[in-house]
């Protein structure tokens, strides 16, 4: 009879006691996979000074980890159902959910460690932490106390610890601003419960002496980085931090209907107690004291230890109280990595930097050094390693990311030299779709005030210099017909549009990078923006519409519609007319023409991607200029709103259409046109106010630009001028009032009406002044000349 599989999850009741006595049975498979998948873990024993192997063998070793027992079959079934209910979150009220959580905690009392280490129930523990109160989280800290060194090395329990730490981090800041003790009625101090700060410090005390071993542990290294981020007060939800805390493959545990959006405390830098900063300094000093130089350099290329070493180095270099320079008296990470003068040819520091420059893992550590190193040290690294090789470094697939970090810190003179050196490499970079370095170079030229004319000419030459194909090549779109079937095919007989023949292609990384390059060029006034704008205006209407409804290229259209100084009003008007109101459709010509001239607007409104273009168009056409409150393109806003209103039924039948109806306030546009004008103009002004002042278009340059605009010759410019006279709310009334004041003798030398007075007050003063004049005329029944004198005097 074959033996029963002891590693299976379905176990018989009579075998449970025997398996509970076998301490290594549950952990042995995981430890074997660790050794086979990550053989570099053995390095940690060889490169330390005080033999952390003892710590790992006594407390952290896989063979000595305690076994917390296993859940009974009935318990596993209960917790499995509880996990399903929490995942669905289908409770009548929050109170019912709180009662359910309390019951689950009651059933889990004394079994918290078993649940955290269970493959099937560890997700329940994470969901419990997400929904727990402050007191319940503190209770979990107390239940896990004494076992954190083992839990953070466990395959499943380590995720529970990370969730507990991340969810408890904002509580530390909240308690820091609140009173730690409360006084009763008699004024005596009552004993306060344990603070979250003390619970974190107790956890660090348990991990003391094992940091070196945990650096290269497969699971504990992630938890250690979470602790370091929390102790330093760094944001928890930013993309740069998330990449340090977890991998892309990490399963994200959520609760349906639970608000998991980032809070202000998790998005911004948090206030942390001084004890946390002291703990970070102690962790860095203790860790560096237990490692020799060779082991630190091995960590630089270690796939598990490198991210943690990056974080430790960043915390060391950004700490204002630490000695950050190389050759410092106190042993630091940067002094261990760069022990001697890097400017000396053949030095140990120069050899190390050149060795990790082209390494896929080590180059990330070099990025951290180039980003956070002190100015003096960075200048030495740049002049020795990068200055004469910036073109070759930028051309390589791995070292180009280090080059981008270097370009962000060099001076204007060095940047001009770098542009001259990299300029001949633009063609090769474009051919290999490495446009990220070109994008960074343009951004730094804009920030430093470096001329971009030659760089833009090289980019245009690399994309064949044809305006009608430049944007398509930049976005890596070889065949525009692949995007066109996604658009609805309109018919001339009024029947329903034909369904699309196939789905649009999925965006590729090269398309994303090309789109980001085009957006960057549109934000830089001068030759870069002009190059992309001319290409967009050279595209036919069908191509523009297809680009506006494709995910990656839609962002190019949105950036072109942004009301910035690089996108002047004439260009935005031409782009909107070409996208929404092509001449062939307006005149009903061409094989694809339709009696309905608003079909492009409807197609955008019904598209998930195209609806964002309509939102950008609303901001673009209602945005005022820098020195004026008028919106020169507001006539297009009313035209698009009228077109959308004519398709109100189709819009309300679509999910994206209802969003467009709400964003454009079509209900208000249909009922109270004046209120709608004020609302959309105020919204446009608020959107423009959020932009930098230097990015806004100037009103003084508008007349000269408008003279060169071709739309003025067709009469559209005159129509917009007429609309401008009445577009701004209250402008017409002010002009009429000014004319009446001049009629009744109010000259330029007299005081104007107080703008702070209400309309009723101004009306009463006006009525009183007119009545006074009439009474004076009646009382002096003289000649017309005498009356005229009286009018002038009054």
UniProtKB/TrEMBL annotation:
Entry keywords, A to Z: Repeat
Residue spans of biased composition, Basic and acidic residues class: 14-23, 704-723, 741-751
One of the record's GO cellular component terms: preribosome, small subunit precursor
Biased composition (Pro residues): 497-508
Any Gene Ontology biological process: endonucleolytic cleavage in 5'-ETS of tricistronic rRNA transcript (SSU-rRNA, 5.8S rRNA, LSU-rRNA)
Keyword Repeat recorded: yes
InterPro entries on file: ARM-like (IPR011989), ARM-type_fold (IPR016024), NOP9 (IPR040000), Pumilio_RNA-bd_rpt (IPR001313)
Localization, UniProt: Nucleus, Nucleolus
Transmembrane residue ranges: none
MF terms in GO: RNA binding
Residue numbers spanned by region Disordered: 1-65, 488-513, 682-762
Top-level taxon: Eukaryota
Residue stretches of biased makeup (Polar residues): 691-703
Function: RNA-binding nucleolar protein required for pre-rRNA processing. Involved in production of 18S rRNA and assembly of small ribosomal subunit.
Name listed for the protein in its UniProt record: Nucleolar protein 9
Organism: Phialocephala subalpina
């Amino acid at each position: 009879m074959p033996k029963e599989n002891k590693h299976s999850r379905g176990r018989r009741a009579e075998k449970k006691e025997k398996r509970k006595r076998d301490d290594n049975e549950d952990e042995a498979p995981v430890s074997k996979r660790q050794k086979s998948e990550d053989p570099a873990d053995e390095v940690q024993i060889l490169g330390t000074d005080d033999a952390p192997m003892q710590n790992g063998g006594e407390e952290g070793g896989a063979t000595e980890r305690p076994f917390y027992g296993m859940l009974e079959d009935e318990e596993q079934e209960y917790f499995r159902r509880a996990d399903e209910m929490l995942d669905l979150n289908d409770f009548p009220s929050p109170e019912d959910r709180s009662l359910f959580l309390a019951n689950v905690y009651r059933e889990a009392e004394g079994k918290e460690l078993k649940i955290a280490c269970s493959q099937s129930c560890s997700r329940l523990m994470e969901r419990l932490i997400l929904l727990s109160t402050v007191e319940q989280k503190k209770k979990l800290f107390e239940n896990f106390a004494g076992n954190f060194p083992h839990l953070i090395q466990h395959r499943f329990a380590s995720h529970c610890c990370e969730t507990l730490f991340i969810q408890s981090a904002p509580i530390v800041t909240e308690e820091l601003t609140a009173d730690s003790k409360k006084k009763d009625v008699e004024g005596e101090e009552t004993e306060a419960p344990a603070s979250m700060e003390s619970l974190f410090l107790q956890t660090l005390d348990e991990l003391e002496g094992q940091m070196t071993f945990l650096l290269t542990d497969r699971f504990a290294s992630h938890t250690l980085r979470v602790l370091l981020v929390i102790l330093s007060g760094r944001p928890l939800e930013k993309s740069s931090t998330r990449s340090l805390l977890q991998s892309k493959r990490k399963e994200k545990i959520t609760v349906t209907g639970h608000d998991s959006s980032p809070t202000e405390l998790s998005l911004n830098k948090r206030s942390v107690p001084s004890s946390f900063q002291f703990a970070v300094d102690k962790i860095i000093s203790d860790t560096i004291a237990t490692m020799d130089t060779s082991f630190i350099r091995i960590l630089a290329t270690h796939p598990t230890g490198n991210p943690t070493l990056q974080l430790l180095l960043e915390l060391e270099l950004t700490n204002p109280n630490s000695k950050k320079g190389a050759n410092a008296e106190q042993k630091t990470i940067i002094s261990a990595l760069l022990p001697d003068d890097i400017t000396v040819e053949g030095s140990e520091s120069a050899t190390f930097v050149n060795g990790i420059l082209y390494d896929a893992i080590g180059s990330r550590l070099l990025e951290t050094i180039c980003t956070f190193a002190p100015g003096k040290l960075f200048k030495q690294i740049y002049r020795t390693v990068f200055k004469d090789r910036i073109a070759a470094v930028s051309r390589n697939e791995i070292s180009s990311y280090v080059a981008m970090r270097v370009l962000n810190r060099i001076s204007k003179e060095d940047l001009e030299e770098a542009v001259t050196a990299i300029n001949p490499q633009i063609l090769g970079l474009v051919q290999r779709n490495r446009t990220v370095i070109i994008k960074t170079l343009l951004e730094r030229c804009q920030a430093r005030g470096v001329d971009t004319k030659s760089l833009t000419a090289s980019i245009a030459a690399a994309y064949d210099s044809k305006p009608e194909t430049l944007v398509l090549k930049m976005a890596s779109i070889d065949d525009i017909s692949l995007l066109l079937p996604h658009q609805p095919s309109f018919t001339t007989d009024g029947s329903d549009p034909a369904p699309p023949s196939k789905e649009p292609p999925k965006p590729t990384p090269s398309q994303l990078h090309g789109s980001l390059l085009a957006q960057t060029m549109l934000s830089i006034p001068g030759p870069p923006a002009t190059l992309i704008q001319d290409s967009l205006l050279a595209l036919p209407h069908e191509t523009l519409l297809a680009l506006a409804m494709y995910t990656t290229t839609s962002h190019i259209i949105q950036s072109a519609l942004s009301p910035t100084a690089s996108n002047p009003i004439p260009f935005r008007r031409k782009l909107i007319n070409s996208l929404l109101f092509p001449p062939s459709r307006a005149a009903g010509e061409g094989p694809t023409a339709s009696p309905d001239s608003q079909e492009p607007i409807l197609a955008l409104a019904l598209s998930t991607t195209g609806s964002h273009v309509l939102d950008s168009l609303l901001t673009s056409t209602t945005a005022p200029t820098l020195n004026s409150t008028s919106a020169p393109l507001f006539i297009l806003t009313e035209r698009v709103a009228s077109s959308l209103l004519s398709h109100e039924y189709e819009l309300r039948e679509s999910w994206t259409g209802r969003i467009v109806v709400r964003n454009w306030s079509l209900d208000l546009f249909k009922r109270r046109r004046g209120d709608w004008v004020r609302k959309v103009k105020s919204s446009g002004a608020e959107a423009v106010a959020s932009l930098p002042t230097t990015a806004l278009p100037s009103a003084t340059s508008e007349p000269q630009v408008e003279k060169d605009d071709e739309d003025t010759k067709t009469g559209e410019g005159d129509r917009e001028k007429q609309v401008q006279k009445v577009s701004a709310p209250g402008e017409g009334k002010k002009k009429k009032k000014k004319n009446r004041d001049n009629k009744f003798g109010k000259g330029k030398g007299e005081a104007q009406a107080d703008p702070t007075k209400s309309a009723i007050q101004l009306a009463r003063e006006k009525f009183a002044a007119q009545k006074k004049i009439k009474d004076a005329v009646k009382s002096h029944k003289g000649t017309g000349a005498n009356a005229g004198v009286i009018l002038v005097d009054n």
